Amino acid sequence: MAVDLKAVPKLCCQYVAGDDSLVMLLQEVQGQYDYLPAEVLKAVSRELGVPLARLYGLATFYRSFRLTPRGKHEITVCTGTACHVCGATTMLEHLQRRLQVASGGTTADGRFTLVSVNCLGACAIGPIVVLDGAYHGKMTPDKADALLRTVGKGKEKDRDKKGPRRPAST
Amino acid sequence: MIATKAKLFDSPGKLEAHRAKLSKARAGKPCLIVSSGTCGMVNGSGALVEALQAGLKELRLTGKVLLRVTGCLGFCEQEPLLILRPSNIFYPHPAPKDVPRLLKESLLGGKVIEEWCYRDPRTGEAVRDIRRLPFYERQQRLVLGMNAEVDPCSIEDYIAAGGYAAWTKVLAGGSPRHVIDEIERSGLRGRGGGGFPTGRKWRICRDKPGDKKYVVCNADEGDPGAYMNRSVLEGNPHSVLEGMLIGGYAIGADEAVIYVRAEYPLAVRHVLAAIEQAKAHGLVGENILGSGWNFQVHVSRGAGAFVCGEETALIASVEGRLGTPSPKPPYPAERGLWGKPTVINNVETWANVPQIINRGADWFAGIGTETSKGTKVFSLVGKIRNTGLVEVPMGTPLRQIIDDIGGGVPAGRKFKAVQTGGPAGMIPESLLDLPVDYESLTAAGVMMGSGGMIVMDDRTCVVDVARYFMNFLREESCGKCTPCREGIKHMLGILTRICDGRGAVEDLARLETLARGVKAGSLCGLGTTAPNPVLSTLKYFRDEYFAHVVDKRCPAGVCTALRSDNDSLGEKREKGANKNG
Lengths: 170, 581
Prior knowledge:
The structure holds 2 protein chains of 2 kinds. Chain A is 41% helix and 11% strand. Chain A has helices at 8-16, 22-33, 38-48, 52-61, 81-85, 88-99, 141-150; strands at residues 73-78, 112-117, 129-131, 134-136. Chain B is built from 24 helices and 15 strands. Classes of the chains: A alpha+beta, B alpha/beta.
């Protein structure tokens, strides 16, 4: 599948102006394409005269960068210490079996991407599973199954919703 | 309550006048406080706020009663909390459908509705006043206390609560040297885990020649099980910003970077909002408060690498390079960001600064122990009744934190260990009377760390936890130096073998040798502290290792391969874990 490279020069201009670091640039590229397509990294490398190896190095060093597209839905399992002692590993293994996918991978039908994260810092409600940006606390394998069943039944959340939404004071 | 029309303050006097005006307008108004940090939101603070808004409208009280949506108030177990002011009546997670009655009886009638009150699990008595809640009663909340007073998205709230007063005080009177003297005299030490004296760090940077300097806020809180910084950034971002303004002024920096972890989306949003508001009010930017001094603040989002919490790696990451640490010296205070002298402090350290300026070094130095001053925030999590954020004076015994404030482990279970400061080491029951300060914990072979405190009960296997940490650190080791990269991998291999029932007695000595090697030979804090979970468990829980390697038994019933003869126990354990979780 061809990737549209039109956005590349615009994404690069802040770096050229000296306002962005390469890490920030890659964050913006990922913000635009949802992952770091190889074609785009090559185009960025050409545009800036930065070796592709350097971009690839950054993209593989930092955990938040993806080199492959995500599935339609993203499930994140927190595996921080507090979640671990409350059963997060069991949960992660359960989801891996259930979805037939390794941590970090996407299901064959492209519906789900399963990821683990070291700590979301919401330890009071662990084990935590985040489905498309919405946090679900005190999860059990049964509750996780129930949660998966809600997907595609009108209860879907926008995957790119950046974290929980906060009510306002008056 | 986001400031729609920004008021630009061009002198400290204008800011003070505005504060007086705000206080007058708010005086005597009742207030409803809803805690809405990440935990609060997950537990339904949104629906509660909507119900309160509707209820106030019904009673024609909109505008006459303040409704304040705050960040985390620390009592995470019971989020969202609703606090009524001035009565201080509070209800843990009230149901939206109960709001009409609650407003009529408690807000208008001043009556406590007993059946909705929090009950002290020990006495069974209803707690009517939030200040009498055992969880809060024994704390001293200097850094976290203001979270209840401010909507994190409202600079007006922060100003009304006394915010930026320290900053005007510094601009009005204190020379930069005087500020550094004050911080040095207060005895404040770095809260990120290192414990380096903050004032001394500032002085080193100040004394370094050069016209370009930086201040950096380390908000890359990566220690699993630690979320003190998230709570401060989400709940009171201006306090950190004010600390950085003061620090920048003191060392002569005109630029600041706040490096926030990517996993904290709400914290990033609130920090960005706080910077925008401070700019609009003339508190950040050019010619601040008419002083002629300029100060720019940027946010750098982390990209998910634990090692970037190490200051030299953090600098590399901000500069857009691989986040690998470099040898020290030179320390960042001498040669930091872009090669310029840079002061890097943790979120909590910065948040302490305005208080020290406001209330004086002597006041601060009066709290804590001989060598560790002030308070420390801990996140108390794991197998504990009152999960939450706890702030206590330095030197408070661990037992007091875990039993009196935390309420101990859930009923029917037995305390086994507490793990402090990220991967910093496991403390057994016999050492619970240890005071928490930098020196005492280090002497016990563990560390203060950044403040994560994970409580484990008798159904937690310490060997499994040590393995968990080695697995985490193996993934997070940047790979630059060999002892850390290879040593952790081999420790993980041995621990996995032990957990799988294939361990031998000799493995314990091998583990110990490896651990000491990694500790001695690694380049940065990640590697030098990585062996702590292994060394501390070998020291304090050697019996449990022997049970694994000799008897091929996991006393806690966690290690699956060693559970063959008592599967029922394993099942029970899982059920218990879910219930207690």
